[in-house]
Each structure stands twice: as C-alpha cells, then as structure tokens.
Amino acid sequence: MRRRRAVLLALGAALPAAAVLALPPRLARAHSLPEVEARLHDREQFFQPFEARPAPDFALQDPEGRPVGLADLRGKVVVLHFIYASCPDVCPLHADLIARIQEMVSLTPMRERVRFVTITTDPERDTPEVMRGYGEARGLDPVNWTFLTSGAERPEEGRRLAEAYGLRFVPTPDGMQMHAVVTHAIDREGRLRARFHGLGFDPTNLVVYLNALTHDEDDEAHAPPPRPAPPQGLWGRLRKLL
To answer: Is the whole model's pTM more than 0.85, yes or no?
Structure first.
C-alpha cells in the first residue's frame, strides 16, 4: 500500500508537466530547430523566424541597481519584451501572456535554461518600486524573470532599444505611448531568432520553440551542465519528449 501511494504521488507531481507537453505532441517531439520552425510556419500565423543575427545589445539595470547586459544572459534562451508600467491596455495583457508562458516553461526542465526579460520604455516613472510591484501584480516569478531599466538619467534609452528590436514606442500628449506588441526569442549565443507578434499567438507554440532553442545543436558549446539521469517511469518517458 505504501509503495502504491508513493507511485500515485509521483504521478500526480508529473501530471502538470505532462499536460503542458501533451498539448502539441508532434511539435514536442521535433528535436530539430529547422523542423520546429517549418511546423510553426504552417501552424502559427504570428510567428516570424529569422536567420540568426546578433540581437541588439543593451546595458541596463535591474530594480536593485545591478547592471545587466545581453552578454550576462549568454548561455540562456531569452524571451524579451518591452512595456511601460502605466500602460492601461495592451502592456498588462502582454505581461499576463508572458506570465502564462513562464508558468508553462517552469513545469519543465527549461526552467533553468530560459530567462524572461521585460524592459521599460518609461524609466522616469517606472521606478524600482514600481518595477517590483508590477511583477508581483502580473504573476511573474523572479526566479527566471527580471524587469530592466535604463534609469531616469537615460529616459530615451528604452524606446531607442525597442526601435533597434524593430518596434516603436511613440509618446503622446497624454503621457501614454503608442506601440505594437512583440515577443522576441533570443538564443543562447545572443542571436535574435524569432518574433511572435501581437497577443493572439498560441503560447504553447512559443514554449515549443523555446524548447527547440534550448536543444539547438549550433549552441551545444553553451549548453548547461548535464543533469542527473531521470528516474524510470512516467517522468523519464516525459523527459524524452524534450
């Protein structure tokens, strides 16, 4: 009886990850990045892949004032997006979508391999206190997410950087900013690999793409240290899907 209960508990712990991985079974089994890109090209209308190119670099800081540059994220797959905290409409929806994707990623071994980065385009009003509160309000987990700013002394830097990534945040007389919504995927070598446009893409498709980036053979030199061999049984079979 004790052994049976232990098995049931192990199955219960594995089921959330199984639910995520089972959503797109064909995509989850595609190990090759080109294969995943080809499948997403047919399945996801908001997906825009690129031939690998260096992502625009940045020199920013987190809410604690610690410097963070793109080079500091080398070895991680990066999900990057731009918002400003006082945005009344699409920015909170975008952050909520990122939080959903982060939760899905965190149910898998990718938790240690993917970093979520939010950059403010309004550093004068997005103080460290505002930035900390924004993450809590939107359900973003600081274990693999950070909110970055250029600091109030460089008020244009966030918008300049957004433009370098291909989108504009245009200030309006009422203190708002007109802008598009884009989620950027950067590989472990610091190269921009894809954009997911708007809020209508299937978050599972981005999770599958991130999984392919974490296993891309071009980046094996920057792979994280090998993990211990998984136990046999359901979780062991699930890990083979990654």
So the answer is: no
